What we know:
Elements: E1 3-5, E2 12-14, E3 16-19, H1 33-45, E4 50-52, H2 61-71, E5 80-85, E6 87-88, E7 95-96, H3 100-114, E8 119-125, H4 129-133, H5 137-146, E9 150-156, H6 160-168, E10 173-177, H7 184-196, E11 199-203, H8 227-230, H9 233-244, H10 257-266, E12 273-276, H11 281-291, H12 301-311
Parallel strand pairs: 3-4, 3-12, 4-5, 5-8, 8-9, 9-10, 10-11, 11-12
Antiparallel strand pairs: 1-2, 6-7
The structure holds NADP nicotinamide-adenine-dinucleotide phosphate (NAP).
Amino acid sequence: MRKRTLGATGLEVSELALGTWGLSGEGYGPVEEAEQDAVIDRAIALGVTLFETSDSYAGGEMERRIGFRARIGRTPPPIVVATKIGTDVNSSPVRKRFDAVWLKEAAERSRERLKRERIDILLLHNPSVATLARGELKDTMASICESGVARTWGVSVGTADVASEAVSIGAPVIELPYNTFHRREMVRIAADVKEKNIGILARSVLSYGLLCGEWPTGHTFPYGDHRKERWTQAELKRRIVQLNALRPSVLLDVTSLRAVALRYVLSDTLVSSVVLGPRKAAQLDQLLRDAGKEPYLPEGGRAALENRLRAVGVDV
Ligand SMILES: NC(=O)c1ccc[n+]([C@@H]2O[C@H](COP(=O)([O-])OP(=O)(O)OC[C@H]3O[C@@H](n4cnc5c(N)ncnc54)[C@H](OP(=O)(O)O)[C@@H]3O)[C@@H](O)[C@H]2O)c1
């Protein structure tokens, strides 16, 4: 497993990370506990050292599970953990909270569940532009780091505007959605990422499974799967048709659409780690095989792929 440095933080992270939202059973539907453990254990065995989670995934259970699995037979655990705070899952309805008191207490609770001396990377979980613009969050996160609860901090973003604001407040790490069909956050902040040496964690690199290219045009999702609400049937069909148009020899020596999706993001040197979301150990194995080795794409491959995407109607 190759490693990259996480921006200016100095932390070394595996360039493939294990994200645990899908594993938690939220979002995509239930996953047996034994399979959750199998995926985490397999990731450790394959040399993944970065684990990504949140205090809201299964109400903190994924933090607990990572903390427990990582300690089996290993002291101290040779992993780096990124977790996210900023959600009160006990309120009804669940609400976002980014006040200093809440964040400090939430960070302590996450550290306890993870059973770690320090949380390596503590991220704000989907704040709005207005919340970030209020200004005190940088001080709050810096003080959590100074108190020794976290090593470094950052922002997990869902839109380009929030990504820009995260850059403005000086976040050392940004997690963002980034895939061949959705590049707008990365495109917006790429120059700043380079200049300020911001650590980038890229997630949703398969566009929630779409980019694996395994779905027929009439594909549907069961209730409880976030993808049922994410796309209308017409939008999903349009995307599948666009994806199918990429099939004929997109990149001569990259043989599957899944590999193309993964390697496109891995080939971006501004990315520190690609956060994968397998829900089965077998999926993790496939993803690691598909990631392959450097060079991830043949020379000129990124530009060729972007041209091809534009030609089939996909533009950032
Ligand atoms: N706001 C945030 O901070 C945020 C938001 C989203 C995600 N994340 C993190 O990023 C991680 C990954 O992101 P994501 O779940 O959004 O998207 P993703 O990685 O693009 O898609 C995950 C889905 O892809 C499918 N998949 C995975 N491996 C596969 C394989 N080998 N073959 C075929 N299909 C495969 C699975 O779908 P099936 O279940 O259909 O097999 C899986 O649920 C999450 O687990 C989470 O930890 C963070």
